[in-house]
Task: structure prediction
Amino acid sequence: MKNEGSQINITTGSLESNILFFSLPLIGSQILQVLFNMSDVAVVGRFAGHNALGSVGSSGLAIFLFLGFIIGMGNGVNAVAAVFIGSGNVKRLKRMVSTSLIVCVVYGTIMFIAAFICSKSLLLLLNTKEELMDQAVSYMRIFLLGFPGLAFYNFGSGILSAAGDSKRPLIYIAVSGVTNVILNLIFVISFNMAAVGVAIASAISQYLAAILVYIRLVNCDEDYKISFTDFNFDMGIAKRLLSIGIGSGLQNAVFSVANLFIQASVNSFDAITVAANTAASNVDSIVFRTLEGFYLACTTFVGQNLGAGKMDRVAKSFKICLIYSTLSCVIYACIFCTCGRYVLSIFTPEKEVIDIAMIRIVIMTISLILAPLMDCTIAALRGFGETLYPMIIVIAGSCIFRIIWVFTIFNHFKTLESLYLVYAFSWIITAIFELLYYRKVYKNYDSKNLTAMY
Result:
């Protein structure tokens, strides 16, 4: 495969610089998505009141429960494509592209239908306040209309990133995101549509991103080009994609299930606290999304170098991504603990909301320093094609443990502090077992005919 200027050499050259330059556009893409999502919150918070703000926040976890599966499938596309690209198996790569396109679009449509049907029930399960329910249901259902488009974008972004091109997804997100912000302002301020307006804007922007990535994949001259004259569906590749994608999605869903209990606990407080939690969660979302850039880099570099049979670069890629992601958390903790109030003022002018939101910001940004130990290890294992056992570990360490915490520690103290501390403890417990499993997989890895398992 020829290397365009926008693509990073993954199997050759300095890993420190290549991972950094590959990750930066990914981080930019992730942060832009957060900023554009924050524009939803900021617009409704400042122009539609705290009820609209709480409505958007109350539906956030319910949406992510299904959104996590679409993101997971994009991770699966990235992991499988990286192995084929690294091994130089062009024929299988072409089959993989056409197969994953079909899988992702069908998968995204199924997620949309399932989430739409379950939306109100999930919001009731979350103890969504009665005064927030109508807007929350409307926001969620309209937002879900963009799921098929989002699934296609994640497919295309996964292919491009696996090939070392992390710049174009950044451009596409920037264009769709600016469109989202403009539509937010028009729908909310000019048409007084509140939460419904930002949901419509989000759905439209998701399809715009999908169109942009489609144009690239159809018109490029790379081996991963979408060619309808050479369009094949490979059941073996589809099974592998579903195995990694659903496994990754289930890991996201496990976090969401546990966090549903946490959100329900937040919803047991008053509407102002719910609004404060919504505003603060956008701040730690910036940290999470930055880390996602390094995690995707980890999966890509591990996968391609596995395909190329370069085990020394596999080990080093994991270590570098772990160091970069941890350092990012330290920097963010320093910034948000000192400047968090200024950031929160973007979302709400209410001092009481900001005071409560700072509780989450301080605890979460410091706790997040532990998160890469777990998530970066999971990303590396995904590069090996491992999802089952990492998912089981996540279920035990980050789902069951969090639920038990809610019903014991939080139920005893009934404070926000006792609720938010669950994240730090669950991350460190899960990380210990994920690291042990990674060590076992790496030591026992057999590089013979790697792509045969795909």
